[in-house]
Amino acid sequence: ETGVTQTPRHLVMGMTNKKSLKCEQHLGHNAMYWYKQSAKKPLELMFVYNFKEQTENNSVPSRFSPECPNSSHLFLHLHTLQPEDSALYLCASSQEGQAWNTGELFFGEGSRLTVL
Amino acid sequence: GQQLNQSPQSMFIQEGEDVSMNCTSSSIFNTWLWYKQDPGEGPVLLIALYKAGELTSNGRLTAQFGITRKDSFLNISASIPSDVGIYFCAGQLSVMGAGSYQLTFGKGTKLSVIP
User: Fold this and answer.
1) Which residues of A touch B95 (CB under 8 A)?
2) Predicted confidence (pLDDT) per residue in A41-81, tens digit
3) Run of H or E including A57
4) What is the Cα gyration radius of chain A?
5) Which of A98, A108, B15, B61 is the most buried (most CB within 10 A)?
């Protein structure tokens, strides 16, 4: 059983809908991430939260809005998405140190999003 | 930005055969990682390499961190049906205080094993 759980596993929404993806990690980690996985493309980092503060935003459109209320929970709020936003959205967590980072990410199973 | 070239893109092999895949980069990394993604799941770390020239094994898996720090390979010996999935390489250039968000992923190698 994964230490990172994502809900919902599947989501179909219209372009005018507002929905949210949820991620929860049970590993005691201090950093959480949202990645987008599209077919035949590398994993794309969207957002990073380190100690609940957003430290990275890789030029993601404003129709994606992250929220990290505490170090265990991460949300991705979705609003007026486009069909090309259809993808698998993966949440991940890690334990970041001050001087050394292993590079190991713990991924959830993903939320498969389809935008009609 | 940094890009990783991962090859092959896909492989169809017979059960029992050995598998080899690799990643190359135009820039150096000080960490190379290999992840596997099973169908319907998120990626899971298989092997991490932290030193140029390092050769590390994990069961039937062997990975090496290239001497130039610009490449890495993953070998799987005696493949079995549960080896099916997508294998991703990832490189990281860590600096003091930097985080895992500096990972750069390859596009993946999709492995199919014919029983």
Assistant:
1) none
2) 889 999 999 877 777 777 899 999 999 999 999 999 999 99
3) strand A53-57
4) 14
5) A108
